[in-house]
Structure prediction request, 787 residues.
Amino acid sequence: MYGKGILKGLSVTWKRFWDTYTEDISWMMRGKKRYNTDEGIRHRSSKDTKGIFTVQYPEEQLIVPEEFRYVPFLVYDEGADGKKEVRCTSCGICAKVCPPQCIWIVRSNDPATGRPVPVPTDFYIDMDICMNCGFCSEYCPFDAIKMDHDFDIASYQRNVYNLEKLMKPAAYYADIRPENYTREEEARKAKEAAKAAKAEASAAAAA
Amino acid sequence: MVTPLTATVDLVVRFPGIVTADVRPGYIGFIINKENLVEVATAIRDEFGFDLLTAVTAVDYIAENKMEVVYHAYKTTGGAGLVFRVQAERVDPIEVPSLIEIWPGVDFQEREAWDLYGIKFTGHPDLRRILMWEGFEGHPLRKDWKEPFFEEETKPFKSRWPDGQHTFAENKNPFRDNLNFPKDFDPEKYVVDKEEDLYASLERYTTKDVEGNMKTDHIVVNLGPHHPSTHGVLRVAVTMDGETIIGLKPVMGYLHRNHDKIGERNTYLQNIPYTDRLDYFNSMSNNFGYCTTVEKLMKIPVAERAEYIRVIMAELSRIQNHLIFIGMLMNDLGTMYTPSLYAFEERELILDIFEAVSGARMMCNYFRFGGVVRDIPDDVLQKIKGLVSERLPAKTDEMERFLNENEILVARLKGIHVLNAEDAIKYSVTGPVLRATGVPYDLRRADPYSIYDRFDFDVAVRQNGDMMDNYLIRFDEIRQSLRILEQALKQIPQGPINSQKAAYQVRVPAGEAYGRIESPKGELAFYVVSNGKPNPYRYHVRPASFVNLTAVESMCRGTKIADFVALLAMLDIVMGELDR
Ligand code: SF4
Ligand code: SF4
Prediction:
């Protein structure tokens, strides 16, 4: 029969339409919210999702996985008197590895000796050029630069971030990437412990 | 099992005095006397059976004052390839005989080499620029050509550290020092290019009498830049006799950024995220191709677990690519958006996986030399299993139920000829389009790379080469990919995910490598030449879309204009890769 194929196809469309409402109703019956809740969004991006699928940005936002990467930021630790101690040592690795070469670092010099000191005087990232590749954070030996989760940065200006604008606290980093943070902290503690043990051993040997 | 680097063919014995073996360390293949190229190439095709010429590209050995053209030929029955090359003095005009009579598929690639290297292929009937605009001065891939924002020969640039004061590139006024104007250029007298060359390359317009009664004109219609159902910014100039296409030339390069040149400025590692931006639907496959090539050059193994992860990612990528192909084809045929959104739904779920492992949905940048950047978390592995064993098979069936018997669709697709096997091979077409003509040529079988020889799957082929077969073969391939995925997910071992230590500078010994993979769109290959420095000396992409498009004129000649957009869709082109 001519038109059978079309009808068969339409049955699929009809089923999808039907599913949308039955899903809504079944969530309602279970007293749960399908929209504007984390649970609802998670379900809509799981393999069991049925019916309507859209996430209504910006009212709803997709929940990004831990590894999600957007533009980079610099991590600082809270010092004793609330001073921001930036972790970056201005070693320059990130500037060298950056594929579009959008990182500019001014290394500090000791005014007395003229020797370089391990803090950046200034640090710029041209966010319009950054390709969000994540290499800077991957190859930074000091866990000083990390990729952000905040992707709503559209603006009318060009976005060249300087040191001030790039800095975010370690607590923020711990919050967006808890697993990475814990792993790195543990590695750091282990390293420090090993160093202390070594120092102790050499002190004992000297004595 | 890995096929050897070069086929065991001794051209030197067959052509004494004309062919010499290439003995430079790290190089393979043969150097052919320029004057005898056509003769030897004919023998390579007819006597030795290398019927598929996949890549033609050039290398500028400026220090030796030589320009080299490199050819890679393969057999459609599978197995290793043959590399042969000609060298010419680097003095303009550099002339090399064209091989267009032997392998018509070299058409666009020779034009590209002319455009970017300034090598004149004598005998090429239509040697115009292809990626750069017609008024462009110079040949940008030559080692002595510099871009307007030129800073340094290679990255990393010294201005970034330790005294990196931010500047905008355009503040170093591009109109000052290094913008090249043609000699005697006078802006006052500049006339806009009328593109006479383009129109002259089309079948001539003639006014003729049909049976002495009615006079018909051939008209030229420009499709695009843009519309051809917006696979990107492509333009096609078509000559028509009534509704019938009698000649056609694609015009491309609107998205050209000279990926090859950027790649030669970059370090080896920095190229990985750039490859994401080629075929932006399949960044995983692009990474795969590039990393395989560089690993070949570095002679390093890939960690066992990483091999499986790579295959899993590449096959997921193929599934979503084919789903989008189906959805977008429906858009081209006028079924606006419902099918394509159904396809996007599944794609979203696959992109969620990419995002969870790599951090980005499309620009994955996930592969590293020797492995991948990070492991798949267990919950993601579970999600992949769920998709592969339950959701995707069901949804593929649903898509088939939804579309395949639709009478309108069948009327539009069935019996509309795309290509036959002979033409497809002639034009170096690869991928699903070639397989739909009955040639079971799939690199995962024909020239296995990575660990594809461990999986049990069939090469999808169809026999008719019409649009319907081209459409249905994508479903077959999705099913085969699901089969591979199921096995890979079952077999994946525990272990490290990279055989190398993470390093931002890699050492690549001098030599050349041609690495090819079966990307969802066809053969994606990279040709990389190293001179031992931290940056590739030559970095060339052999994109499937670009080479497949060579066949478009022969595909469309004689068909109705209404089928054109659908025929173009069959080639599954993507501009990021086509224009590079
Ligand atoms: S790699 Fe890390 S420590 Fe070195 S300059 Fe960059 S951010 Fe600073
Ligand atoms: S994410 Fe990539 S492009 Fe962006 S600053 Fe870091 S290294 Fe550069």
In short: The pocket of iron/sulfur cluster (ligand 2) is lined by residues A 72, 98-100, 102-103, 125, 130-136 (CB under 6 Å). DSSP finds 19 helices and 16 strands in chain B. The mean pLDDT of chain B is 86. The first strand of chain B starts at residue 19 and ends at 21.
